[in-house]
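Q: What does the predicted 3D structure of DUF7882 domain-containing protein look like?
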Amino acid sequence: MGQFFYANSPDGFDIDDRALTHLRIVIYAKLRRNESFGFSWDNTQGPGVERISVWLNASVPLRFSFASGEPLAVNRSWLEQLTQSADTPAGLYLSPEPSTSRAL
């Protein structure tokens, strides 16, 4: 289980390493193009489900911390799905990995 750190918060949000790998690629691509966007995900730690949303732009410090030291294979279909959601007015939403995978 990795962690996503937003702004200068010392507390990270737990996100599976595989999902975090894909999110990092999509987020870096958007920020490299100087595009600001929203990012939302469902936090299932603790009782119930909490929807978390943050605004991402190049001036906000971000950190991705992975539990695994090994690079993970990338699912091209999932990258495309996440990128498409990031390009909508609702912003990037961490959706489940599609069952069909086209590895990179």
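A (community wiki): The structure tokens above were generated from the sequence. The radius of gyration is 13 Å. The first strand starts at residue 2 and ends at 6.
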